[in-house]
């Protein structure tokens, strides 16, 4: 009989997020690819790992100048694959065990890609299929919803960039110093956001740039732990067709990573949703720190601040967020 209180695994793992982030981002890896010979980078992942990949895609594009886009695993797991000569494939899988991701890593390598894996499980099948593995080294994650491995995946991607670009390495180290000071720090408006989620019928989670990937992760966590309908949107895309849902009761969470170039877009989205009468909550790293963060680190920080709110909401609704009824830790897909 399981006597562990509901949510205790997830709570402990959320508490480990910043330590995992700082450790994974600080690893000094040899350069896993030759940027001069790489024409494009493709991310391959699912679920929370795909949200981390989305965050990293913006950071990789900005820093390397290379196009970075998502490649569905089914291109290799169900099809014959695509030519990836002079490309890199970044495969993110916390367990390293999902068959479609193993096939994708194997297929991408067979079609010419330099395959870099980010995984938390040493000796996994994804690691065996890759050219190089960047370990998350988060230790066991027992809750079904991933938290510390998501934040660790972002950090491992930052370590990848640090290995490729010395200038980025300095900024990543500074971001780790800032993050380390925030152990145990809570989102100041946590109570208001939790109250909003408890009365929510529909939730939009809005971000831009690396905040867009963070929005995907937050929306996924709300769905899988709280059983509340939530969708993630870019602050630009949401002002098209999805804005019409504001004609019904709508809760809007805006994840603002603080970058200057995204402020106008987030401001416009916030103004439109407030004008439509939505319950809008905007969260920023500046709510807890004035330290310098890379955009990817800022997205990771937003997750560490919002995860506890989602956990508390799930418990208040009577759910066990450690073990959602319809989910399992390793999802086998094709």
Automatic annotation (TrEMBL):
The keyword tRNA processing does not apply. GO terms for biological process: carbohydrate derivative metabolic process. It is an enzyme of class 2 (transferase). Residues 31-173, 193-324 form the SIS domain. Its EC number is 2.6.1.16. SUPFAM superfamilies: SIS domain. It comes from the Bacteria. Pfam families: SIS. GO terms for molecular function: carbohydrate derivative binding; glutamine-fructose-6-phosphate transaminase (isomerizing) activity. Keywords: Aminotransferase, Repeat, Transferase. This is Glutamine--fructose-6-phosphate aminotransferase [isomerizing]. The lineage of its organism: Bacteria, Pseudomonadati, Pseudomonadota, Alphaproteobacteria, Rhodobacterales. The gene is nodM_1.
């Amino acid at each position: 009989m399981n006597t562990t209180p509901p949510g205790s695994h997830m709570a402990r793992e959320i508490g480990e997020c910043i330590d995992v982030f700082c450790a994974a981002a600080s690893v000094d890896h040899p350069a896993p690819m030759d940027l001069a010979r790489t024409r494009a980078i493709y991310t391959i992942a699912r679920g929370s790992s795909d949200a981390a990949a989305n965050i990293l895609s913006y950071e990789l594009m900005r820093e390397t100048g290379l196009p970075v886009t998502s490649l569905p695993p089914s291109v290799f797991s169900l099809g014959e694959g695509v030519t990836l000569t002079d490309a890199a494939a970044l495969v993110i899988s916390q367990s390293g065990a999902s068959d479609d991701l193993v096939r994708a890593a194997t297929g991408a390598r067979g079609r010419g890609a330099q395959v870099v894996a980010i995984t938390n499980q040493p000796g996994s099948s994804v690691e065996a299929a890759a050219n190089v593995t960047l370990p998350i080294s988060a230790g066991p994650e027992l809750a079904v919803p991933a938290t510390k491995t998501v934040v660790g995946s972002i950090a491992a991607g930052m370590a990848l960039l640090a290995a490729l670009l010395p200038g980025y390495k300095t900024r990543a180290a500074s971001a780790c110093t800032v993050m380390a000071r925030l152990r145990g720090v809570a989102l100041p408006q946590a109570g208001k956001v939790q109250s909003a989620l408890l009365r929510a019928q529909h939730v939009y989670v809005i971000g831009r740039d690396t905040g867009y990937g963070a929005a995907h992760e937050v929306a996924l966590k709300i769905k899988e732990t709280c059983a509340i309908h939530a969708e993630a949107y870019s602050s630009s895309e949401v002002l098209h067709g999805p804005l019409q849902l504001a004609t019904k009761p709508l809760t809007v969470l805006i994840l603002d990573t603080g970058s200057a170039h995204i402020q106008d877009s987030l401001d416009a989205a916030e103004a439109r949703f407030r004008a439509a009468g939505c319950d809008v909550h905007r969260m920023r790293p500046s709510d807890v720190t004035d330290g310098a963060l890379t955009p990817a680190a800022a997205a990771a920080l937003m997750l560490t601040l919002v995860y506890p709110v989602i956990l508390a909401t799930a418990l208040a609704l009577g759910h066990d967020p450690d073990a959602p009824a319809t989910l399992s830790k390793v999802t086998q897909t094709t």
